[in-house]
Amino acid sequence: MSVISLLTDFGTDDEYVGLVKAVIYTIAPDAVIVDLCHRLDPHDIPGAALLLANAWPYFPQGSVHLTVVDPGVGTQREILAAQCDGHLFVAPDNGVLTPLLDGAPNARVVKVHDRSYFRPEISRTFHGRDIFAPVAAHLSLGVELDRLGPRAQGSQLHRIELPAPQISAAGELVGSVVWIDRFGNLITDIEAALIDRVKSAARGRPLTIEAGRRRLSGMVDSYAQVEPGKPLAIIGSRGTLELAVNRGNAADLFGCRRGDPVRVRPEDSGMRRTPL
Amino acid sequence: MSVISLLTDFGTDDEYVGLVKAVIYTIAPDAVIVDLCHRLDPHDIPGAALLLANAWPYFPQGSVHLTVVDPGVGTQREILAAQCDGHLFVAPDNGVLTPLLDGAPNARVVKVHDRSYFRPEISRTFHGRDIFAPVAAHLSLGVELDRLGPRAQGSQLHRIELPAPQISAAGELVGSVVWIDRFGNLITDIEAALIDRVKSAARGRPLTIEAGRRRLSGMVDSYAQVEPGKPLAIIGSRGTLELAVNRGNAADLFGCRRGDPVRVRPEDSGMRRTPL
Amino acid sequence: MSVISLLTDFGTDDEYVGLVKAVIYTIAPDAVIVDLCHRLDPHDIPGAALLLANAWPYFPQGSVHLTVVDPGVGTQREILAAQCDGHLFVAPDNGVLTPLLDGAPNARVVKVHDRSYFRPEISRTFHGRDIFAPVAAHLSLGVELDRLGPRAQGSQLHRIELPAPQISAAGELVGSVVWIDRFGNLITDIEAALIDRVKSAARGRPLTIEAGRRRLSGMVDSYAQVEPGKPLAIIGSRGTLELAVNRGNAADLFGCRRGDPVRVRPEDSGMRRTPL
């Protein structure tokens, strides 16, 4: 029995996710299916890429992770299957595996070509049901990766470029908001270790954190460490800097959207801007 | 172990779907439950009918398909159980099974009367939990259809009339938008075979496809065959004509709603209207 | 094999629910997970408390019910595990178990302290994944409640005060709207037995029921007993008074929100107000 996680932009207003599961259970009746997320924005490849890279390590060894954000459905884009660290992945070759594979240099990747693992009829618009689901189901049953098709070289794969936090010469760390969750929390790409580097340079001065129309001083260890309605900075569940509001919505309070910059620097570091 | 699919208008904001599952697992602990869709518009019987008719063939043999869109809950409306092609169905007698049964003349249908398969206490407003769920669970355990109640004749059943595409004397095919999915794709009731008939009549001329404020020439094989933001016509995952926008929202661009007409005809066929 | 129900305010737009399941299946691969509800308003402790108290009895004996509405995550708030009537419960100590425990004086409650049942790394913001999920998984495997930590006395626990219906000296029953479901139905805290008391006092006169800008006379046995679009009062699926509209939305028609009062009294009882 093997877990199959599903990450799609299908939403839950239609029959699409249900049909993917129907096909999986037809092939692999003992599969355990976990909905990782289906409410990605349509075609949100970077969002899916980061969510997947963050989520898969929490699943059991041997899990199959199926990601279908596939605006190229029906074109000649390849479908990839990959194996790394005892987990399996199936996804279109559109960059959605970039962060995963960048972090797993020993991953084996194949192009999925063998139609005997597909449904007999392939629609033009729903390879999630007709190709991805049966391939994931067969992998969960133990089909060897290499039986699906030829090896793919990393250099052949489509990549997406994700913004990476930078530290300026003056010591200011600039990252960005990469996800806004249902609570309105602003999740950034600034890992805790980077914060620690700025902290070291600060030599005891607190950190100033700026995003949108807010500037914070220092970080906290829990949302409730500030008054309800007040903003805060914390290391969130992805291990990165998160801006939040105790019992409130940070996206609204900060006025931030995905992609907006987030700045971290030692206080009074000579880079202070006009107060907002 | 048997799959039970759930199709309801319960939404996912309340405990209703969870309670249906709780009751099923109490009776059939090994059931595998698949959420087909719960976000139908409240009381959307035609939408449920078409979604079910399209979806059930993708499920494993022996599946039980539970459909609860039930504005008549608590009245004398019957509850039906049906068997066809190795699948089982449970639904209120309000027409939600019409397309399914129209396509399955050999289906056996019974009226669900035997209260020993219900929960002991029946609420006035939630037969999904108190009747439908336990009946579906018992069917999944192998209870014979005829033990649930007397046979129902097709002529006794409530029917819904669904619009059917028509071909005019002049050769214009007129169907309608029967579903709009989360991507904004306009899914019609015009099956591929009907399109082929118009194509044959067109003798090589491309097809003109009209819906809302848009007119298209010809069909494509993938969304990405047109530029991002551009509209297209394609055979979608239900095997019917679908109007879409590459990486965009067709419902917005075409200005269409469910029920709106969609016209297909050979180009320059003498039926051309004033350009929109 | 044991059912684990999940009740959270995580929503379904993010990976949070998926990660909770990933952690559970890593520890308890045979668990059967039921999503009770994830779309509670953020931090809606009273809503979660009532939903849980109403829902758990429908689950199989031996189920583990995990409730994570946890604005105090990362503070010193306790995490509780409880056992009553053959069911197990895990939740933060913030009052979300108040109605459950008030109705179960023999419940055993412990404070969850033993970190060997947690994930090795505990984030500041997502105890659902790092503590609650693994604890629920271990309980579903049969770990004894008392191994998790010391007994908690009822008097030590955080409580929430929920409004309770009152009967005035003049015989008017005043309750409130405690939930509005996806259909717009107004679910109150007025149990059927309370209605019966007012009915007895009415000696055959019908009941007047008032909420928002509407006043109804008498109750019905099914939504369809009134014309489409018309309001009605009925005993709903929680066993309490529910105000609804046949094929319509009562929240809109009555102009009611959660917390608004609902009044029930014998007609012409001398308390009639100016017609609305």
Any overview of this molecule?
Chain A is built from six helices and 14 strands. Chain A has helices at 16-27, 45-55, 98-102, 127-140, 192-202, 250-255; strands at residues 3-8, 32-37, 64-68, 79-84, 87-92, 108-111, 166-167, 173-180, 186-191, 207-211, 214-217, 231-235, 240-245, 261-266. In chain A, β1, α1 (16-27) and β2 (32-37) form a beta-alpha-beta unit. In chain A, α1 (16-27) packs parallel to α4. The radius of gyration of chain A is 21 Å and the shape is elongated. The B-C interface holds B 10-19, 21-23, 25-26, 29-30, 42-43, 71-75, 123-126, 129 and C 1, 3, 5, 12, 32, 34-39, 51, 54-55, 58-60, 63, 179, 181-183, 221-225, 234-237, 239, 242, 244, 246-247.
Distance from N terminus to C terminus of chain A (CA atoms, Å) equals: 56 Å
**How many strands, which pairing sense, and closed or not: the largest β-sheet of chain A?**
8 strands, antiparallel
Unreliable residue runs of chain A: 272-276
What is the tally of helical segments of chain A? 6
Secondary-structure-based class of chain A equals alpha+beta
Using the alpha-carbon principal axes, give the shape of chain A.
elongated
How large is the radius of gyration of chain A?
Answer: 21 Å
Return the average pLDDT of chain A rounded to an integer: 95
Biggest interface found: A-B, 29 and 36 residues
Please provide the count of β strands of chain A: 14
Helix content of chain A: 10-25%
Percent of sequence in beta strands of chain A:
25-35%
What's the oligomerization state? homotrimer
